[in-house]
Amino acid sequence: MRTVLLVACLLFPLIASAAGGEVKLDRAKIDLRDAVSIQRGAQVFVNYCQGCHAASYMRYNKLQDVGLSEDQISDNLILTGAKIGETMTIAMREEDGKTWFGVTPPDLSVIARSRGADWLYTYLRGFYRDESVVTGWNNVAFPNAAMPHVLWKLQGIQRLHTQAADSHGKAHSELVLETPGTMSVPAYNNMIRDLVTYLEYMAEPESVKREQIGIIVLMFLGLMAVLTWLLKREFWKDVH
Ligand code: HEC
Asked: What separation in Å is there between the alpha carbon of 53 and the centre of ligand 1?
């Protein structure tokens, strides 16, 4: 019995990830060294997401690290009346979120750690019209998500077209843009890339610095190895 349980525990993550892996994820191709992309993403976040989602591990003034001044942050990014040293919380109470959507919209501070950039990129571009669900929207990456498509005016309205199973017995479905939005498809994709870059930055603001320090440490170790070898050669040259 214990063995069965152990095997089940070990296999569970595999099964779970197999179930989640049905949708093919699009590559987000974000660049965390692109500070302007992070700035634009932050703007989208406060305008379109913070109405429902908080980012309570993120302080507004941290954005000075990506090149924004205190005034720019206060004037353009703080829409909630918070002070610059405060975290990005929201006014909506948790119970209200639950009543309105059935699920409390989760805090997005570290969502990029759990979902990954590619999943977020696919999710935020993957909403389609579905009259059979309450919100009127469904999603290819997150079926029956309780989140409405808050960016639909920009993206337009997509539908999911499913073709009948082919000779290999595989049904094929694809998203088709039925009514264009105010943004072109490439412009919308770029905006989502900025937003995902911001979400990724928020989840680990020091990641670029950490990688840079890693490279310096490796270079230092390499230099030390060469010096040590030269020193060894010097010490041993007369011992023969
Ligand atoms: C009108 C309220 C609302 C707005 C605005 C909104 N969301 Fe959501 N969001 C929700 C709700 C509710 C859920 C929970 C969905 C579920 O669990 O079924 C959710 C879920 C999510 C998830 C999935 C979290 C998970 O469980 O892994 C992500 C990612 C997300 N939202 C990102 C965003 C981003 C980015 C924006 C801004 C473009 C945004 N949301 C705007 C209500 C909202």
From this structure: 7
